[in-house]
Amino acid sequence: MLKAGVLGAGHLGKIHLRLLNQSSKYELVGFYDPDTENARKVAQEFGYTYFPNMDDLIDAVDVVDIVTPTLSHFDCAEKAIRKGKHIFIEKPISNTVEEAQALIELAASYNVKGQVGHVERFNPAFLAVKDSIHNPMFIEAHRLAEFNPRGTDVPVVLDLMIHDIDAVLSVVHSPVKNITASGVSVISQSPDIANARIEFENGCVANLTASRISLKNMRKSRFFQRDAYISVDFLEKKVEVVKMKDAPEIAGDYDMILQNAEGEKKQIYFENPDIAANNAILDELETFAEAIVNNTTPVVTLEQGTNALRVAKQIIDSF
Fold this sequence. Notes:
alpha/beta; Rossmann fold; Dihydrodipicolinate Reductase, domain 2; 2 domains; 9-stranded mixed beta sheet; 14 strands; 33% helix; globular
């Protein structure tokens, strides 16, 4: 078992503590939080070991799980890497692309592994269809959330949209060609609603919308490709897959047939992939443990986390 320590015991940090504590792949050593009052409260309520000094915790573990505010990601990760510790770091990887690049270089020089917490990669609905997404040419994503003061210290692009940016980059294997975007601040000092159009060199276009002042929650993405339409509901953990194939010579009574202007006939059919229930956060933590033990590439690498941050920053810069 890998010894793990958590930096940050806020809302998400407490979830990580609970899951690491129940995981068969980790031994939870303890946690550090600069808010001593909160730290003592968490330690007393849940029984986790509180380290008053961050360096002492890092020294005691193999893996450092960084669940702190974004502004502190780089400092925490740099300290852990320089002590030869593997790092799991919540999204976004850091506050700037330059910091992220520095972490990539540091991790390589100290021969440690890193994974970024883009949890939607482990969403069971996305996992069920990811291998069916081939060369999508148009993608539309809506990520809407009811207002919550937590996270409003950063633009909605870094708070919410970055999930969809990472998911899109994981299935579109082409460099970004152009980005246009708009953002509006309604209640926060930074944009609360944003829309971005990302054009890729292979012709694919992704249209992403994010809002944190909606009346209802929604997390849906739609992928359009030559032979299929694939819809993923990240919130409800549901998928819809509609595919096309050449129509049979003689159509059945219930076959859905479309004919284009050139007279070509296609049959529409539906697929219902199995969606295996899981705990996405536990899965991302445990696959990182497997990558360390087996010396394989983490599911979401520091480089991929940096690419998502780079696109997010380009979107913000184009407002």
